[in-house]
Amino acid sequence: MADKIMAVTGHRPEKVGGYSDEASKRLTTFAEEMLKFYKPEAVITGMALGWDQAVAQACINLKIPFLAYCPCKEQDRKWFPESREMYRYLIPFAKEVFYAVPGTYPGAWCMQVRNEMMVDDSDYLAALYDGSPGGTANCVAYAQQMGKEIKQLWDPWQWFLANRC
Fold first, then answer.
1. Of residues 134 and 108, which shows the higher confidence score?
2. Which of 15, 161, 20 is nearest to 86 (CA)?
3. Which residues contact 84 (CB under 8 A, 6 or more apart)?
4. What pLDDT does residue 164 have?
5. By C-alpha distance, which of 68, 55, 62, 60 is closest to 27?
6. Is 62 in contact with 24 (CB distance < 8 Å)?
7. Which phi-psi region, left, alpha or beta, contains residue 63 (left: φ > 0; alpha: ψ -120 to 50)?
């Protein structure tokens, strides 16, 4: 799978351990292990809280280029100050930053536009997805519709939590 572009989608902190520094470090460590295994040439991340940002941090740590595909310029407008600070720390490390829609937040639909851009511009999708409805499910469904290979990471994540933490 080396020399391919990986897009990532996954759950927010509520479903992957919470907002603590410890939870964030655990998720980033898992992201690093996943990146070492798949060895992508570059990664596309939607920069959402949780999995997306953990993957961005793991890319920085491993010196893997990543592309930030943001739904709009105010993606972080409703986040807690600590979350906004992390987002603003990560963005300058992106090789490129793309916005699904220009300007300010037009509504939740722009996140699906972003998801479709990520899937369209990647070779495969790595999904930290537990099967529940929501934005991650929508991204996975679009990737399936487009015939993209999907690496399902939920079971490896559960194993990691049980055996490595």
1. 134
2. 20
3. 76
4. 78
5. 55
6. no
7. left
